[in-house]
What does this fold into?
Amino acid sequence: MRYLVCITGASGALYSLRLMSALAVRGVILHVVASQWGARVLLEETGRPLGYWLGKLRAQGGPDGGPALITLHDNSDFSAPVASGSFRLSGTVIVPCSMGTLGSISNGTCSNLVHRAGAVALKEGWPFIVVPRETPLSLVSIRAMARLKEAGAVILPASPSFYSKPKDIESLVDTVVYRILDHLGIVDKNVFRWSREES
It folds into this structure.
């Protein structure tokens, strides 16, 4: 299975790092694209560059003990395999997704590889999840989200839940990551699911 994770310049780099970690340990083939500002925000929020975190994920390894399979693509490289629908993916996630990126994809504008990856996911019909982390939302952004939803995307805001009583920031972030995994068709046995005894 192959997945693409795109990182753009919205706050919330930890969401992308936790998602990539959750995918890598499952032994999937992971492709990554980061915008210039996505990489910059990640550095500002974590104190380490993207290359450091990808190296750490590779060393962490997959389920067979070998290195995790991760390929980083330049955001300006339209010749990258993920720019083509013939390169089949099991899902594409933009996390966090900036409003600029969301607006560009919803309008069919492709000025970089992240935009193109979103357009490919929509035209090919595989799972496409955008994770905006913005508040409040303007009417422009709401309409852009509606266009993407109508085109087949899942709009999954980075809105963590609290009913699992998360003990730290990572656990809180994981409540969103687990929802992303759900929409990719990946079941995580660690997820806390709301339930109520039948009366």
